[in-house]
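Deliverable D2.4 — example input (structure tokens):
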């Protein structure tokens, strides 16, 4: 079965990682503006102050998208750019995204708008600790209302929260993102509030009668058992409940998984249900599941855990979590998969894992899936004649597109495929060393240079994929 005629061949980005213009035209500070300025929080203390300057170069970048034939682009709105303090509308910020959306439409590129990609207004973090307070539900919903009113007649696809499991997990468990704490109960509390805010945003979308589809993007890694030992299988099942179903069941069913809740309860961890919470979650189920897929994860009986963390190239640049013990270590332990090669960043390369992901989501939830991120972070080299020969990226993406096609043939409904990312961009923790784009941006941690754009070999490869609707790989 071939890809449907209206399949979205896209790419993706996040405001903080590309825009720059950190304090221009009335933009307020985000938690990431603050966090990345604290020495030691990012590789070589790099920040998104300038990033790749999409704020000034968006027309040039969208012209490159047009040249490629890209038919969808997923980008995020910076909350503090359109509401500096999280509440007061900044007309210049609102106008910027009108210009971006209009330029995309003019170029024949379908805009996919991500409402929240981690850059919370610092003012709300200062006022009530951000995602730890139920106050944010009202403020986030008002932010959504502004975006729906402004862009609702132009944008058909909306992503509410990007990788809620990652921004809460890295912020409240692994101490790698703001607010940089490790407290599993606080993590579950903040995550529950984020789930309520997500449901409120989706409910409002329907209440306002916005034409289009809405759903969150979830960072999903299908779980494998290290061996056929029943203890490893139970560890894998535990991980699936606590690492995946705890979010996706809420998104697609409007309720938490019974076993996942009981596993946490047995560890002394509880979700703080208040009157009305369960009804709100039921009222905010998704139209589609956004899937951010990078790798699968293999699990072993925690009694058999071995501390064999691979270092590799990434150890030279990555900011690594120092947190050693978390409550769920009693339920499962991660293990290496002996059958998979690794990226420069020691992420497992597993195209079949994408097919597994699509099938599992389809089987459990029966909703359409938008692959909102998938890509290869690698060290790229710009040659003297301005080329980047990234056959490794082409091979990675080709295998993943083949896996999508196989999953569609299995019966999965896939709306589109957004690679991460179109342009090289600022990595939250790894500066500019970890490159994902089809377009090389000439800058590094020490020097912004001229921020010149160069088309990589993968640019021309994806151009052919789009032109042939996935037939020519």
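Example output (designed residues):
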């Amino acid at each position: 079965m071939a890809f449907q005629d209206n399949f979205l061949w896209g790419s993706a980005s996040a405001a903080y990682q590309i825009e720059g213009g950190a304090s221009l035209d009335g933009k307020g500070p985000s938690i990431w503006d603050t966090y990345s300025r604290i020495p030691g929080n990012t590789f070589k203390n790099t920040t998104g102050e300038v990033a790749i300057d999409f704020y000034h170069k968006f027309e040039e970048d969208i012209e490159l998208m047009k040249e490629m034939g890209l038919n969808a682009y997923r980008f995020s709105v910076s909350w503090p750019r359109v509401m500096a303090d999280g509440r007061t509308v900044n007309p210049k910020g609102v106008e910027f995204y009108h210009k971006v959306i209009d330029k995309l439409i003019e170029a024949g590129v379908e805009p996919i708008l991500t409402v929240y990609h981690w850059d919370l207004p610092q003012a709300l973090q200062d006022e009530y600790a951000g995602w730890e307070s139920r106050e944010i539900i009202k403020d986030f919903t008002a932010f959504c209302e502004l975006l729906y009113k402004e862009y609702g007649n132009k944008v058909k696809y909306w992503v509410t929260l990007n990788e809620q499991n990652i921004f809460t997990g890295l912020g409240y468990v692994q101490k790698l993102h703001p607010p940089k704490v490790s407290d599993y109960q606080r993590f579950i509390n903040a995550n529950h509030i984020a789930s309520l805010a997500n449901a409120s945003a989706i409910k409002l979308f329907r209440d306002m009668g916005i034409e289009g589809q809405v759903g969150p993007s979830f960072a999903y890694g299908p779980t494998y058992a290290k061996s056929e030992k029943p203890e490893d299988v139970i560890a894998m099942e535990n991980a699936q409940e606590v690492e995946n179903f705890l979010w996706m069941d809420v998104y697609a069913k409007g309720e938490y998984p019974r076993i996942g809740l009981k596993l946490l309860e047995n560890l002394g961890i509880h979700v703080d249900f208040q009157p009305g919470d369960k009804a709100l979650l039921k009222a905010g189920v998704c139209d589609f599941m956004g899937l951010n897929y990078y790798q699968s994860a293999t699990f072993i009986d925690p009694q058999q855990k071995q501390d064999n963390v691979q270092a590799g190239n990434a150890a030279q640049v990555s900011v690594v979590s120092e947190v050693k013990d978390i409550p769920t270590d009693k339920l499962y332990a991660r293990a290496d998969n002996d059958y998979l090669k690794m990226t420069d960043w020691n992420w497992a390369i597993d195209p079949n894992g994408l097919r597994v992901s699509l099938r599992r989501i389809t089987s459990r939830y029966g909703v359409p899936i938008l692959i909102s991120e998938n890509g290869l972070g690698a060290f790229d080299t710009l040659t003297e004649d301005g080329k980047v020969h990234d056959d490794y990226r082409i091979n990675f993406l080709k295998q993943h597109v083949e896996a999508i096609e196989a999953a569609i043939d299995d019966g999965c409904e896939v709306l589109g495929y957004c690679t991460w990312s179109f342009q090289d961009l600022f990595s939250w923790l790894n500066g500019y060393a970890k490159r994902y784009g089809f377009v090389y941006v000439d800058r590094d941690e020490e020097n912004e240079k001229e921020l010149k754009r160069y088309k990589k070999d993968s640019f021309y490869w994806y151009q052919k994929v789009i032109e042939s609707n996935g037939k020519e790989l």
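Residues 184-207 form the longest helix (24 residues).
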